[in-house]
Amino acid sequence: MTWLQKLRFHSGQNENSAGSSSAQIRHTYHSLNHWQGFQFKLFWEGVIVGIFSGLVVSLFRYSLVTAEKYRLALYAQLSQLPAVYTAGWFAALLVIGWILCWLTKHEPMAGGSGIVQVKGAILGFMRMNWFRILWVKIVGAVIALGAGLSLGRGGPSIQLGAVAAQGVSRLLGRSRMEERYLITSGASAGLAVAFNAPLAGVMFSLEELHRNFSAVVLLPAMTAAMTATFVSRLLLGRSLVFTFYTVPYFPLDIHLLYAILVAIIAGLGGVLFNAGLLNIQKFYSLPVFKNLYLKIVFTLLCAGILGFYLPQILGGGNLLADELVLKIFPLYPLLLLLAGKFIFTLLCCGTGVPGGFFLPMLVLGSLTGSVCATLLTSFQLILPGNAVNFVIIAMAAFFTASVRAPITGTVLISEMTGSFSHLMILGMASAIAYIVAQLCGSQPIYEAMLLRSLESRSTPEPDTVKKERNIVEVPVSSGSMIENKKVKDIPWPAHTLLVDVKRGSRQLIPESSTVIRAGDFLYVLAETENAEEVQNLGSDLRNRM
Q1: Cβ pair 46, 185 in contact under 8 A
Q2: Ramachandran bin of 492, using left for φ above 0, alpha for ψ from -120 to 50, beta for the remaining angles
Q3: N or C of the chain: less Cβ packing under 10 Å?
Q4: How far apart are the C-alpha atoms of 137 and 59, rounded to whole Å?
Q5: pLDDT for position 25
Q6: pLDDT of residue 292
Q7: Rounded CA gap, 399 and 360, in Å?
Q8: In this structure, are strands 496-503 and 521-527 parallel, antiparallel, or unpaired?
Q9: What CATH fold (topology level) applies to the domain 255-279+312-453?
Q10: d(Cα 345, Cα 306) in Å, to the nearest integer?
Q11: Which CATH number fits domain 36-235: 1.10.1740.10, 1.25.40.10, 1.10.3080.10, 1.10.579.10?
């Protein structure tokens, strides 16, 4: 029996469900058998995905900026008007709470940052209704951030790019294997447009979402990110997210020791932030929060009060990060801003409304770095002009400790600040923060949240999704448990079938005696519930013999 016949056999013999399944098999077989042409096709599809994702996320980004301008103008006016206008605004917040509650319930997969949902879709654990998520995410996130909730645009932009790519895939009738590559490309484009950072968009998709640096993933992701960035710059300009202007050269002397210290502190901050995100539901389990509406209204009313007394911590916070560099803050106000932003971000994320914590997390890193720089300056250990260096170091370290993506953290901060002369010091800080998080036993935040979501069985039709069959790409790492093993000696999970092996430019038809080498890419037919176990075969060192 050939592997294609086996593939058909394992896909099921039920004629009633064979229509779409047979089409999936034919598309997958054709792609695997014409690999070079498949990669070229993904390249051009990456361009299409980049155009659509660039348009969608540019619209989203423009809407957020406009909403934030209106919010700032509103609070400036309310402070000068009679109290009845303020009362009217708080009444409006109650209505906004109802709208956000309805949107969150109408499409739960559009709630939160969206990165968890994208990871789940790429792994095959979750389904996304691309069109409904697209409009709910845009409307919900713009309303939430416009009302002042401490949420970010990064996660929503990633999900919007991903669902735009999924829409392209569905319209073109692509297979599930090809769709996962396109979703990764769309996520890359989404982050690229959100922060005007195409390289970071590519790295985040490869390092965090797909966990795979193969050419078939890299090529469309890079094409989509570059195309989407080109589209967004045509529409919105080339302005950076953080207006730091000129970042001074980092002195390679005693300042390195200070940088290590700041990276450790920021890394601990990222660990604490993750713990807060994973445990904020304990607060919302209090009897007073009887339903979702009360949770949302509570945060909106907090935002309404903070808008008069601590407006800097509302919204994403990129303007606050700019202020930290352009102005000199005393230590006490900095500590107040750090504590306020930290707590309010946790409260807002705990509601589950559309909006992420990507940008607030970076702002928390900048606040941590600013506090450290203020202390170093007060003890005359550094010059005031070097304070901005420690702000960006802490941003990279805080992000890496939370997300556990050091390359993305390094590249992202460089692109967002427009300074590539700090790659070495940012890379060092990211590596230190990574080790700090590992030693503290902190889990990567998006993986931890995905695991919690799956354990809570909150995903749509979990049993049906788990039993779906997908082609899983498995890169074989040097030193992995399956390196130099014959196919017949590999402990394959139940209900899996090795259908193809790519070794450089060669395509091997797998047999029981085929020896797997480091650098091979395996393509395995597996049920969704076994997909992660199959992927781990290529990198797991624990059971190596």
Answers
A1: yes
A2: beta
A3: C
A4: 12
A5: 55
A6: 94
A7: 10
A8: antiparallel
A9: Clc chloride channel (1.10.3080)
A10: 13
A11: 1.10.3080.10
